[in-house]
Amino acid sequence: MYRSNVFALKGRIILSLSLMLLPTLGMVIIFYLCFHNHTLVIEQMIHEFINEKKPVLRTELLVQQALSPLIIYSLTGDQSEQIRYKNLVTDIDESFLQCLKEKFHQPKEEEHLTQTFLIWEKFKKNADSLFLLNTINNNTEKVQIITNKIELLHLEILKHFSLFHEINDRELVKYSQELTDNKTLFTIAILSIISLGLILSMIGGFILSSLLLTPLQKLYLGARQLAAGNIAHRIENHRNDELGLLIHTFNWMANELQKTQEKLHSLATSDPLTGLSNHRNFFQTLEKELDRSQRYQHKLSVLMMDMNDFKIINDTMGHLAGDHVLKNVGKMLQQYTRKSDLVCRYGGDEFSILLPETQYEEALEFSKRLSEHIKNHSIKIPEQENSINISISIGVATFPQHGADHMKLMSAADKALYEVKRTKNNKQ
User: Which CATH code fits 279-427?
Assistant: First the structure.
């Protein structure tokens, strides 16, 4: 814990300025208390906006996963995907109810969330229509129509989630800026009070400037750095007095602000279980890479992969063991790829990898090596004696030959994946 030598600085100030600085010191204390109370209110508002965002992020993640089993079911008629979808629906409905019970600071947030829920209800009705078809193969046209409606509704849901996040993030930025502005105003006010004290005590001016103005200037410049958006800026502190404590507090507040922004960024871009990129960040990065590849006429490939028989692991060893396997697979994927590649947990036991500057033949060869690497890697399950080996199926698609935009490219990779899985099942 930081400790200050309180008497040292006070004694020197009293020696140089005597009783004339006592009113100035009183004004500083009162202003600091007022500023501190106001800062607590703003920090509380920031904390509340972060908390109201968390259940919405969870709901969005679940909704992103809901499309996959429907697409698989429409292609294969696999009843296990229907079960997986219904389990997701239960979780999503509960998550929506939790979100709708929240009191949001901005009416627009609640409006977008309510609209998202209504579209979700339409999404479920269309999914139920898909499941009511007797057979998938004999109703190809109807299946395609329903699937298209489902995909459009899914995009609409994600759009309203994005609008909700824009409003929430805008409020967070506003209050963070207000917090930074208050720090700047606080520094300026302190400098003004000290300047007044210098006018009243010219004899002790040189001593006061040497003791106080130099560190206060550092605080002022530090506040300006924060106001300019450089939240990584810190003030070097070698003092062991009140000003050292103030600089220490300033650095602490800057640390807390940086941690808050890093947590927000992590919540918005990463998967909480594996630490990999999430579905939303993957698609944003893919769109940017596609623009770059199109501009410079470069190739770009994506891998879509699915763990074989993962449900058996959950059913026989439990979901904790399943989570452990997912973490290990994510770690292996991260270690086996290049720094320029982006590994994503797409949802459930599905992963995807973005491979910039990679042609189809290269991506196909890489997928074979990756599949073999994971197949030969044993995973030790905690509190169990034996290790297990897993295998994955991988679908490959390349820009522009398999798709000119991100939706077509991912759809092609998805189809390639399930063609691989179908071929494996036929061999068995």
Answer: 3.30.70.270
